[in-house]
Amino acid sequence: MRAGRLRGSEGTHPGDVIPLREATRAWFAISLQTFGGPAGQIAVMQHKLVDEKRWIGQRRFLHALNYCMLLPGPEAQQLAIYTGWLLNGTLGGLIAGILFVLPGMLALLGLTILYLAAGSTAAVTGLFAGLAPAVIAIVVQAVYRVGKRALTHRVLIFLAVASFLALAVFGVPFPLVILAAGLLGWTAARWVPALRTLQAHGGEDGPPPLIDDDALHATRPSIRRAVAIIALGLVVWFTPVLLAGAVLGRTSVYVDQSLFFSGAAVVTFGGAYAVLAYVAQQAVEVYGWLAPGEMVHGLALAETTPGPLVMVTQWVGGVAAYRDPGPLDPWAGMLVGSLLTTWVTFVPCFLFIFLGAPYVERLRHNTHLTAALTGITAAVVGVIASLAVYFSLHTLFDATRTVDAGPLGLELPVLDAWDPFAFALTAVALALLFGRNWSPLRTLGACAAVGLVASLVS
What we know:
This protein is mainly α. It has one domain. 70% of the residues lie in helices and 3% in strands. It has 16 helices and 2 strands. α8 runs antiparallel to α9. It is a multi-pass membrane protein. It comes from Nocardioides endophyticus. Keywords: Cell membrane, Membrane, Transmembrane, Transmembrane helix. It is found in: Cell membrane.
């Protein structure tokens, strides 16, 4: 394999494909446009890096994306780190990954403060009454879009349905569902060759990219390098957690959140919506940090800000710490909880990329990875569908009931407690997304305005 071709590299450091200053400007511009979830974020990077600037080739870009989709956590941010690493080495990956989440983190922090300061007012209540139905429609659209792209064979449809039933009906732990899907995808590929191949869509126009499709990064994997990255990464990851435990107490909510979200960072495969299914269950039902409806509120706010949707974990950490601040002032607790949760959620992304990317560079045509990815992607369709059901139950109905019968663990709505306004606004949001092809952000804005007006009028 040959290294990526360098053009216009005047002023770069050794190993830089483009000047670091130019790359930083590009990543900052991308960070301000990353609305609409991982699909929209990946599309922004595709347009900017592949189509417009021609810094990386299409198949090369997809190869990096395939690896990121195999990892736990937000694949769009990991793709930014990977691409930044390809273009400018470790420093480039750090800049790309930090800028990708920074605007959204600051915006969501401001919205969390607004929510906690005025959460009981009619205006804020109406705002969320409009946002929650729009979130349902957005998640349903995600099921449709991911399913249309991923479920190309009967085996994959079976995996999606089985994953949905395992989560929504039998209460199988989320990590086991994803692990089983990857193993089944890898196994089924022996008899279904189509599962071993992921194709790029269409050809490419324009000049050759700086990093072409046959490019190979100069960094070579080694045991020494891997041990050094793991050691440094763990120190960076857990030092703030140890400080929180030493200063605020081992039993504080800050340590509980840090340990939970650190664990979630390594088991939540399948992107933001899949992460939310797991986080919502644990944060609401196990730890009691939030009420069920508040998880929908957090997702609605995360949908309106740039950056990964998994930033909703910052919302969970901030709200929970505000209500149980320990020795801190509630507002100081909210700030510490928000920042600490964000830290342990996103630092692992850098560790996964810097550790694994050199190996992945040398596994360009490994069909086993592709087959496992295909199975996991199919399972994610079922995971997102289970999330849509969860949000629907707690938005469209004011009460639910649990039915336990042997291995079954169903949460069902109380039909008399249905909310006609929420049903109507959900239908409107679905019509705007599917019928009018509105963007998620525009749909959220319209539904929020309807909810706000309705609350003020009533």
